[in-house]
Amino acid sequence: MAEENVTAEIKEKTREEILSEKTYRERNIVLNRMDDMQEEYESAVSNKRWDKKRECYYNREGEPVVPKKDIIFDDVLLIIPLRAEYYRNVMKDDTYAKRHEKEIRYAMTSCLRKRDEERMKKSVEEMVNNLKKVAEEVNTKVVVVEVVKEIKSEEVEVNEVVKKVVTEKQQIGEEVRKEEEEEVKNENLEAGNAGDEVGVEEKKNDAEMKQTEAAENTEVPITEVNSDSEVLKLIDQCKKCMEPCRACTEKDEQFRTRDLEFTKLKTFSKKNAKKC
Questions:
Q1: Region Disordered: start and end of each range (predicted)?
Q2: Distance between CA atoms of 190 and 264, rounded to whole angstroms?
Q3: SS3 of 64, please?
């Protein structure tokens, strides 16, 4: 980098030195050539000689022309040699004069080349920017496609989970329904058995009540006691009548306790059914 800076400084100095060596003669030549270029430009504009490809006006020989204001004076002055150098080159080479004229015209139209270079740079920059945009769009499209694939896979997973949950809920509902049906059947069976037992017990109670009423209504005939044997017979009959009465009362108490237990079981089963 340091060497490049040194060479750049040397080049700039040589340019300044060359320009400082130029005399009035060389400067006057440049001004005259610029006036000639202006005349050619005005005639080309008046005759509408416009080159679409090069985007400039041209003279009768087809060479590009530019207005005087666009010509860079120092660029043209660098090409103009000193008097002695010019004649020395002419003596050495017969074609030098023609080549020198072309070099002067080429230097005067340098503005066209700079314009083309700037346009090329802009077009290259635009192309680079367009390529960057295209690359970004491609990347975004790729990202969008990947995101869509991920979303679809997630949707499939969610649908599978939902299906599993729905099937599990259906299975649980069926199991609960079956359990409720079984509980209702069991309750009906228990209620039927209990009703049968209650009917049997009621029948037994009715029979016993009838026996007790018959025993109470039976009148012992009053007879004369003639002997001890008859008295003993009467006592035995009374004992026999009293025994069934005691048995009936005991059975009544047993039936009552059973009825209480049955009612407790019934209420307990109903409470459990409501909780489920």
A1: 174-216
A2: 13
A3: strand
